[in-house]
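Tutorial handout. Part one gives the primary structure; part two gives the three-dimensional structure as tokens.
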Amino acid sequence: MNTINPLADVQAKLALATGKVAWGTALGVGSFLTVEFGERVEQAKGKVHGEFHLWVYCSAWRIETPAEIVASSEDPREFLEPTVRSLDGRTLSDIQLDMPSLSSTFAFSDGTRLRTFSIFSKDFDHWMFYLPGGEVFTAGPGSTWSLGR
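Part two.
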């Protein structure tokens, strides 16, 4: 039986980030979390991002190791701000997408995982992954996704 996976091309593009080292992890407004991967790239107006850039937008998230939950998006901010930087220096080994929710797992070579949990079925994107060349994979809202510039 031949089944077509419309996300196969997207998953192949996301997989290009595997083997890249995380850096610049930062907590933003609310549950926003950003992580840079790979080489530094200067953007317009002097901003610097990684060649791959993850923006967890309107999702809950959790950082965990095989032995413990390290942090969750609703923990106190004074704890989260330094703790999210624990992802820096870790090598990305896999990106998994859960269907139909588009929740995700960003796995690192040492067993650490950043998991996202989609919380909106309408109106808000869950997370975005910026790729080299200007493409952006957007998960959400709901089970929808897009790949564009």
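Part three, for discussion. The chain has one domain: 8-136. The radius of gyration is 15 Å.
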